[in-house]
Amino acid sequence: MPPGKAVTNLDYKNGEKVIYLTFDDGPGPYTEKIVSVLEERGIRGSFFWIGQRMTEAYGHIGREMTDAGHVIGTHTMHHASLSGKSKSYQEREIKDAIRAVEKHIQVPSVYFRPPYGAMNDMTKRIAADEKQYVIYWDVDSRDWNLAKHPEKIIDNVLQNVRPGSIILLHERQQTLKVLPQIIDRLGKQGYSFAALPKPK
Ligand SMILES: [Zn+2]
């Protein structure tokens, strides 16, 4: 997995049915509740945080999360759509977020997810220069758009998951609501869960 290259799923050998739950757009009011749901089940997740949301308090929460084995990556400074933007704008959005998150959680941040999945070759080059691994997804829960139909979030995940899947979720109320069911039903299908691995 070279820095700068977009990754949509992680191959697993040995027939392991490992999948990766990822949560975008935090930190926010649901962060700790989502972490609790995960930890009650012995699961670690990966979070892509927006730089401008970082505060001292979330830094403290983020440190506890990374100490516990969760992964915190970045999602630009202002949730910016990067494709078609100038090099200086993209660099600022990406680097400022990394700096903000690292400053507060005091752990290196090596995973980056472009908002809306929007990026171009320049974005990849900047990510590579910053030693960032670009994480996409192969399962889109569409949770952000399903506040009124949270049961459809479960269907979107269960119908598309496969071993190695990276599942796109958000730090939203409806996601928190269905997260226990998603985990329990995937667990019954033999899946286990991991945070994104330390890059080799
Ligand atoms: Zn986002």
Ordered list of secondary-structure elements with their pairings:
Elements lengths: L5 E2 L10 E9 L4 H10 L5 E4 L6 H12 L3 E4 L12 H19 L5 E2 L8 H9 L3 E3 L3 E2 L9 H9 L7 E5 L2 H16 L3 E2 L7
Parallel strand pairs: 1-6, 2-3, 2-8, 2-9, 3-4, 5-6, 7-8
The structure holds zinc ion (ZN).
Zinc ion (ZN) binds next to strand 2.
Protein name: NodB homology domain-containing protein
Organism: Aneurinibacillus migulanus
GO molecular function: hydrolase activity, acting on carbon-nitrogen (but not peptide) bonds
Characterise the protein shown here.
The protein has 200 residues and is of the alpha/beta class. It has one domain (6-193): Alpha-Beta Barrel (TIM Barrel), CATH 3.20.20.370. Helices cover 38% and strands 16% of the residues. The chain has helices at 31-40, 56-67, 87-105, 121-129, 150-158, 173-188, and strands at residues 6-7, 18-26, 46-49, 71-74, 111-112, 133-135, 139-140, 166-170, 192-193. Strands 2, 3, 4, 7, 8 and 9 form a six-stranded parallel β-sheet that branches. Strands 1-6-5 form a three-stranded parallel β-sheet. Helix 4 links the parallel strand 5 (111-112) and strand 6. Helix 2 packs across helix 3 and helix 5 (150-158) packs parallel to helix 6 (173-188). The longest helix is centred in the middle third of the chain and has 19 residues, at 87-105. The N and C termini lie close together (8 Å). The mean pLDDT is 94. The protein binds zinc ion. Zinc ion (ZN) binds next to strand 2.
